[in-house]
Amino acid sequence: MGRQSKPTPPPAGTRAESSGRRRWQGKRSVLRFGLSFAVLMAAYYALAATPWFDRLVYRLLHWNALASGATLNLFGQGTRTTDTVIRSARFSVNIRRGCDALEPVWYFSAAILSFPAQSGRKLAGIAVGAVLIGAANVLRIVTLFLIGEYFPRAFGVAHLEVWPVLLILFAASLWAAWLVWTRRTPAHAPV
Questions:
Q1: In degrees rounded to 5, what are phi and psi of residue 15?
Q2: Which of 4, 8, 71, 188 has its CA 20 to 30 A from that of 36?
Q3: CB 121 within 8 A of CB 44
Q4: Is the pTM higher than 0.85?
């Protein structure tokens, strides 16, 4: 009987290098997403520090006050809106910077822009998401006004702790829904 030869192993490092490349490629896309998201968020905060941004935010705050006041009046609250202030006979609230939903909209948009997908899907996602987050913000202002009017002791907790978390969770949920939609819908299907 002849001596059996052992199979020749691949050159040193070939299998390990191939496995390492695959792992690196998977990590590279996560790294690219994280870096892109961080850059977009830094750009938002840099813009937020400019006087031009304050003018934009004021217009948005005024619109939020008008939409929230109109919604409250649909429910018979008898409110008046002046600039960024909504008031009734028993309560008033001033819509200020931070109550504009710009930050959650930008988080949502930055996450979409950082994710690899078709441009059309990104634009559709951002447009729908911005409208939905804006509508959620009007709902937030309306409920905070009602809480302030009827349950004033709960206003601080609802304003500073409950609603900010809900708005960010809502934006994150919309992003997750966008991811599912982007991955499940065929590229040739109408958007």
A1: -65, -45
A2: 188
A3: no
A4: no
66 residue type, one letter = L
Task: List, for residues 20-58, the tens digit of each pLDDT value.
Answer: 566 666 678 888 999 999 999 999 999 999 988 988 899
**Does the CA dihedral 65-71-72-73 come out positive or negative?**
positive
pLDDT digits (tens, 9 = 90+) for 94-145: 999 888 899 999 999 999 999 999 999 999 999 999 999 999 999 999 999 9
Q: How far apart, in Å, are the Cα atoms of 80 and each of 141, 154, 159? A: 14, 23, 21
**Which two three-digit tokens encode residue 101?**
């939903």
- The per-type count for the chain, helices as H runs and strands as E runs, is 6, 3
In whole angstroms, give the CA distance from residue 61 to residue 97. Answer: 7
